[in-house]
Design goal:
The structure holds 2 protein chains of 2 kinds.
Chain A (H helix, E strand, L loop, with lengths): L9 H15 L4 H25 L5 E4 L10 E4 L1 H27 L10 H17 L3 H19 L5 H32 L4 H7 L5 H19 L7 H5 L5 H25 L7 H21 L3 H21 L3 H32 L10 H4 L1 H15 L5 H16 L2 H30 L17 H19 L1 H17 L1 H7 L22
Antiparallel strand pairs in A: 1-2
Chain B lengths: L8 H18 L4 H22 L20 H32 L8 H11 L17 H5 L17
The chains are: A mainly alpha, B mainly alpha.
């Protein structure tokens, strides 16, 4: 088991190294493209390998050989590696899509040389956040991915993107400040920021202080995950970015927030003191998000609102504080990353084919481009939760877990999630009717040759759609994996024991404090 | 651990002032003021880490300071990291404020057009689904962007720098 620990840092180190190399080779777009593809493929391979390995127990790497809790550690347990695998598959697909887009537009130079390095840095930040075994390193991971996302969101610096970027950057910085406050208070209260050691020490501190820490962390992560009262920034800022960027943001960035909530709530604050609040937040996120989507007339914004809305489902699962609820939430995260990203990629294709994303000015795409129609319809139905697709399986798991809980609030949530699914179906079908079925408005370009969709873009979007479908096929094993993940998350001991085998200190070199020559204790 | 964990009152007061002023500035509409607000809040939070580290002591080097009298080096390492990150992000925000000024002649945070369009439609009580005969069906976002909200435009003339 320990012999495989060398795999753990690869998802962070490889993209960072690739980013540096790509930046150095900014004159050669071809080399940059090759570096990005190779790097992300290797990351995917490493994550997939770990997926099998960590099912036997978490892998812990002490960075620099320093033993945790003094040294920083990277921990790959089932949850981290599952998230990592899905996210690296998605980043690779989106990368291929953006490559095809760049090639189709014939611009060897135009999609500025900074795109590839930044994209790789984003991947590294996401991986660091997933693997971090230390609250401060989690903060650093967040900052890495945020810094990269700022650049990607304002790529080209047009008026609309600067406007969107302003909101995004300020909100992101504020959530980072909140996270820092939480970190400082945590350190003051517990004297450590190592997650495993915090899990040991937090139960001993004053319950009031613990609640403050819990709420501060929830606030910081809630902004990142776009949970209702803290979600207004998302539909404002995502839609203006280039299609691949919006797709990867929608798939990954909010899920990093969800992951952080899941990790901290289970490992640091078991006992579910915030469950009722989380349930209400989940309900509000689902309903207000989807009502926002229903009101929208632009398909990108519509999808951004469904993104907010469906974060509520995952939060519902987490708030149930039961193995079934967590397992369903984990399954739902995996499903949602693939499906939401696929939908945003398809919208990029729609924009290319129809010249706009406004539903007023689209129409007749089903006849003009049947492939596109299929590519939209399948993930849309998947997101709405039509059986037998993975969205249905995730939702039914959540509803079952909610009914098992049996409290009145849980039943309200069950009703809310059913209503949200129906409204999702309504919003997505409304978009389908207007974009694909209504008679095309006069302005729609009909010249077949000029608007032919590049094969690479369709191919990579189709790959993600198929990946979403295959989640239905492998739903059994995947649910089993999610179940085992939920059990070990709730037990907490596998994580703590892996990081601190003797309960005090991890494997690795001890810190050279203590009876050193010359020291006068 | 050092026996004296009481925080210095001066630090706490400074943190309170910095964060208060910072929050006030973040609520402004001008991006450069928001930026200054974020810097001040960030500095306040960095000081919070020093408070979290307990009372100040000697340099934490084995052999120069008795172990009981050392400062806690860990929060200081964290603050250093946080300062570096804040510096980078501040530089980015500054560049963005400048770009906004280049494009719009001001650096105010602008309204979202699509939001306003949805709100306007709701105010007029129109159905949220519109057909080809709706009034602004041929106005694109870019068209409206030219007429976007600008609180400071009155009384300001001059060429937009390119």
């Amino acid at each position: 088991m320990t012999s495989m620990t060398w795999l753990v840092p690869l998802p962070v180190v490889l993209p960072l190294f690739g980013a540096g190399l790509a930046l150095a080779l900014y004159r050669s777009p071809r080399a940059q493209r090759a570096i990005s593809v190779v790097t992300l493929t290797l990351v995917l391979a490493a994550s997939a390998t770990m997926l099998a390995v960590v099912d036997r127990g978490p892998l812990v790497l002490s960075i620099g050989g320093w033993a945790p809790p003094i040294g920083i550690d990277l921990v790959a347990d089932r949850l981290s590696v599952l998230m990592l695998s899905v996210s690296s598959a998605v980043t690779l697909c989106v990368l291929l899509y953006s490559l095809a887009q760049g090639e189709a537009d014939g611009d060897e130079e135009a999609p500025v040389a900074i795109y590839h390095p930044t994209y790789l840095v984003l991947a590294a930040g996401v991986a660091d956040a997933f693997l971090s075994g230390d609250l401060f390193n989690l903060y650093v991971g967040f900052e890495i991915l945020l810094a990269a996302s700022f650049v990607l969101l304002t790529l080209g610096g047009t008026g609309a993107r600067i406007r969107a970027g302003t909101i995004y950057v300020v909100v992101a910085l504020l959530s980072s400040v909140l996270f820092l406050v939480a970190l400082a208070l945590t350190y003051a209260a517990a004297g450590t920021v190592n997650l495993a050691q915090l899990a040991q020490r937090l139960p001993e501190i004053d319950p009031g202080v613990r609640l403050v820490l819990q709420i501060l962390l929830l606030l910081a992560f809630g902004i990142k995950a776009a949970i209702f009262p803290l979600s207004a920034w998302l539909p404002d800022s995502y839609p203006t970015a280039p299609a691949p960027v919006t797709a990867v943001f929608a798939g990954l960035l909010t899920k990093v927030g969800v992951y952080a909530i899941l990790r901290t709530q289970t490992l640091l604050f078991p006992g579910g003191r915030a469950d009722a609040v989380l349930m209400w937040a989940a309900l509000a996120t689902m309903l207000i998000g989807i009502l926002g989507a229903v009101a929208q007339n632009d398909i990108k914004r519509l999808l951004s609102f469904t993104l907010v809305s469906h974060i509520g489902f995952m939060l519902f699962g987490i708030a149930l504080s039961s193995e079934a609820g967590m397992a369903a939430a984990i399954f739902y995260v995996v499903h949602h990353i693939t499906v939401q990203t696929a939908l945003f990629l398809v919208v990029g294709l729609i924009e290319r084919r129809g010249g706009t994303t406004s539903l007023d000015r689209l129409g007749g795409l089903a006849k003009l481009s049947p492939v596109l129609a299929v590519l939209y319809f399948v993930p849309a139905m998947n997101l709405a939760g039509v059986p037998p697709l993975s969205g249905f399986l995730g939702k039914i798991g959540l509803i079952q877990a909610g009914v098992d809980r049996g409290t009145p609030l849980a039943y309200v949530l069950v009703g809310g999630s059913v209503l949200t699914s129906l409204l999702t179906l309504y919003a997505l079908i409304k978009a389908w009717n207007k974009a694909f079925w209504q008679t095309p408005p006069a302005g729609l370009p009909t010249d077949r040759h000029r608007t032919r969709l590049p094969f690479g873009m369709v191919g990579s979007a189709a790959a993600l759609v198929v990946l979403g479908l295959s989640l239905t096929v492998v739903a059994g094993p995947l649910y089993g994996y999610a179940d085992r993940t939920a059990v070990s998350l709730r037990a907490r001991t596998p994580y703590i024991d892996a990081v601190l085998p003797d309960g005090v200190r991890g494997l690795g070199r001890p810190a050279p404090v203590g009876p050193v020559a010359g020291a006068t204790p | 651990m050092t026996p004296d964990m009481r925080p210095s009152i001066a630090l706490v007061v400074v943190i309170a002032v910095l964060v208060t002023v910072g929050v006030y500035l973040v609520l402004e509409r001008s991006l450069s003021r928001v930026l200054i607000g974020l810097i001040l809040t960030g500095n306040g939070v960095n000081l919070l880490f020093l408070v979290a580290g307990g009372a100040a002591g000697g340099p934490p080097i084995v052999g120069t300071t008795p172990i009981g009298r050392m400062s806690d080096p860990l929060p200081q390492a964290m603050v250093l990291t946080a300062i570096v990150i804040t510096l980078g992000l501040t530089a980015f925000l500054l560049a963005m404020a400048y770009r906004s000024w280049q494009l719009n002649e001001h650096d105010e945070v602008q309204d979202d057009l699509e939001d306003r369009r949805v709100a306007r439609r709701a105010a007029a009580d129109q159905p949220s689904f519109t057909d080809a005969d709706t009034e602004d069906a041929d106005a694109t976002l870019d068209d409206e962007a030219a007429a976007v909200h600008d609180e400071t435009a009155e009384g300001r003339t001059g060429e937009v720098p390119r």
